[in-house]
Amino acid sequence: MLNVDNTKWEQELDEFGVEGIPHFAFLDKEGNEEGNVVGRLPRQYLLENVDALARGESTVPHARVVGQYSSTEGRRVHQVADPRSHG
Length: 87
Hints:
The chain is α+β, with helices and mostly antiparallel strands. Helix content is 21%, strand content 21%. The two termini are 15 Å apart. The relative contact order is 0.28. This is Thioredoxin domain-containing protein. Residues 68-87 are annotated as: Disordered. One of its GO terms (molecular function) is oxidoreductase activity, acting on a sulfur group of donors, disulfide as acceptor.
């Protein structure tokens, strides 16, 4: 979980291409991104993706899905030490 308002996570936000929240990146056990979903989506999408990764499948069924989301463009960025801080 990354706080988009915290500069500590800028590298990860860029790495995973976070442009809206919520943004879920699904990583395999080596830390490689297998897919992501952005925005408000059916709970079943998340469950099916997590289940596929838990079974060791090489892909997730909902790899690139976009729903309704909040843009990160107008975000207020704060310099804070605690990565979970909300500024």
